[in-house]
Amino acid sequence: MRKLKSKIKIYEPDPKFKDPLVTRFVNHLMKNGKKTRAYTIFYNCINEIEKKNNKKEKSGLKIWKEALDNVMPHVEVRSRRIGGSNIQVPTQIPPYVKVTKAMKSLINCARERNEKKMSKKLAGEILSAYKKEGASFKKRENIHKMAEANKAFSHFKF
């Protein structure tokens, strides 16, 4: 067997919401090992979401989780060399990887936004992903369109 299965890491729950998914998100958000700073950015972002959201039926954490679900890709295309040419083969993404790709997409698209503070950038990106718009949602749609266009090559599995 060439590839080893990667071990799924178990995360500690975060201090405020007691949710391991939040810790995982904060780990992706963190730069230079500054975890407390990443936590403050995330918590300020959730507060910002609750301020901006006029409907008080959902908490900021639920909106964040729905935004993650909206950004999560289900298929991706991988390049495979067959008969002297490279073919884009659509493949299913494992559930653990789906979440990671969604988190990284949200964070990277938030960093490219034009606002002053990272918490406001992140809150804006999460709200736009919740409404099924924004850069991270477009990225997911493009991935799905590429997979749909290369559906004919789906029998070339890895």
UniProtKB/TrEMBL annotation:
Keywords attached to this entry: Ribonucleoprotein, Ribosomal protein, RNA-binding, rRNA-binding, tRNA-binding
One of the Pfam families matching this protein, by short name: Ribosomal_S7
Keyword rRNA-binding listed: yes
Record carries keyword Iron: no
Matches recorded under PROSITE patterns: RIBOSOMAL_S7 (PS00052)
Residue intervals of the Small ribosomal subunit protein uS7 domain: 2-151
InterPro entries the record matches: Ribosomal_uS7, Ribosomal_uS7_bac/org-type, Ribosomal_uS7_CS, Ribosomal_uS7_dom, Ribosomal_uS7_dom_sf
GO cellular component: a single term: small ribosomal subunit
GO biological process: translation
Domain of life: Bacteria
An annotated Gene Ontology molecular function: rRNA binding
Oligomer status and interactors: Part of the 30S ribosomal subunit. Contacts proteins S9 and S11.
Family: Belongs to the universal ribosomal protein uS7 family.
Function: One of the primary rRNA binding proteins, it binds directly to 16S rRNA where it nucleates assembly of the head domain of the 30S subunit. Is located at the subunit interface close to the decoding center, probably blocks exit of the E-site tRNA.
Protein name per the record: Small ribosomal subunit protein uS7
Gene, per the UniProt record: rpsG
